[in-house]
Amino acid sequence: MDFTPLFHNFAKHITLTKTEEKYITSLLDFKIIKAKEFLVQQGEISKQSAFVLNGCLRGYTIDSEGTEHVLSFAPKDWWIADMYSLLSQKPGNLNIEAMVDTEVALISKTNQDLMYEKVPKLERFFRIIIEKSLVAYQQRLNDNLSLTATERYMKFCKTYPQLINNIPQKQIAAYIGVTPEFLSKLRAKQVKAK
Amino acid sequence: MDFTPLFHNFAKHITLTKTEEKYITSLLDFKIIKAKEFLVQQGEISKQSAFVLNGCLRGYTIDSEGTEHVLSFAPKDWWIADMYSLLSQKPGNLNIEAMVDTEVALISKTNQDLMYEKVPKLERFFRIIIEKSLVAYQQRLNDNLSLTATERYMKFCKTYPQLINNIPQKQIAAYIGVTPEFLSKLRAKQVKAK
DNA sequence: ATCATTTCTTAATCTAGGTTAAGTATTTTC
DNA sequence: GAAAATACTTAACCTAGATTAAGAAATGAT
Q: How many domains, in total, are found in chain B?
């Protein structure tokens, strides 16, 4: 139940007093999510955001054919939530699942709104991290519109070198938007090319 | 040079005093961008965000093959910027072009930072609109991963009914991620189906 | 009004990536 | 540590959407 990684994360963009840190801590929950268990499942109304203290989560949807699409991986020090459901308070279509046993700090929507009132600096913090997240999604959308599968895979390898050998390939396929079979074919070709 | 649509936009999420409105007005620029002229071009370092008072802008990239990809349309009352370049202060790869003669309110990055200091409520305002924008991009990425071209076209028609008959089809194609020829084929099929 | 430019359509042909299926690792579980 | 489940590979075949090309329609400029 050690929230220091979270406060390090805050410190990247804002400075909090000890009192503020204590206050924020009082509004947090701590949770261990076992591998393959869910933080959020589609159809639910999301009540909280998560910060990964260690381990790794992934957020994915399942389409009408039953195919999974990974919208985000959240390794240590990343934030993840079903923003759509959290903001609209309608049932979401995101599943957030632990890839390994994962420790998270949770902030309920209610407490987050409280925090914004009591510690307005946090508005800035979340504005900044959401801005960065927005840029990343714009970039990724653009990649999906303009790059080939091979190029997207190479980019993934560059962007997430720590994940590449630690997660199942089929989940990388579900992130870059190809079938596992096709990714396998791509990789075989790349190996041969060397 | 009438900024009232902008203050209506602010009023959706925060309440400003007359004094604050005057202060903010002093930090804004007004500009008319003629049809086919640019607010921002790839390679430039973005210095400002734009709010569309009337008219319509579009943000697009050009890939290595010379193909355009539309990342966003910004009709009246929308915000648009090359967030990547604005935040990183590196050369961007977005082009923001007027589709018709367009009036915009501009906020320079410097003035926006000033505004945040003087009127902290604006942190909340921008946090909220960026959150919404993030949800929209996540949704769109998911659509690109999970829907067919036909489904994406139908969704576009639902989402932007006001644009559908007012912008060139090739730009809708560049938004949903197909060639103009293929979109034309899709539409011919839909008409026949009726 | 006329010519030039841009947009849209149609159709033939092509290809990146999907599907199906079967076999081979690799993990997980008890 | 064996059986079961999951992940990965390979290969033949298939299809949604791309490419190329040429003509028709609409829009804009003079």
A: 1
* B101: enclosing H helix or E strand: none
Rounded Cα distance between B61 and B85, Å, is 13
Q: Is residue B132 part of a domain?
A: no
Return the residue in B60, B65, B123, B139 with the most chain A beta carbons within 10 A, the one to mutate for interface testing: B123
Give the model confidence (pLDDT) of A2-35 as tens digits: 999 999 999 999 999 999 999 999 999 999 999 9
Question: Is the pLDDT reported for residue A51 higher than 80?
Answer: yes
> Cα Rg for chain B, rounded, in angstroms?
18
In a mutational test of the A interface, the residue from B49, B115, B127, B156 whose CB has the highest number of chain A CBs within 10 Å is: B127
Does residue B173 lie in a domain region? no
CATH number (domain holding residue B42): 2.60.120.10
pLDDT (tens digit per residue) in B84-133: 999 999 999 999 999 999 999 999 999 999 999 999 999 999 999 999 99
Domain assignment of residue A74, yes or no: yes
Domain-embedded: residue A178: no
Contact list in B for residue A114 (CB cut-off 8 A) is none
Quickly count: other Cβ atoms within 10 Å of residue B32's Cβ: 13
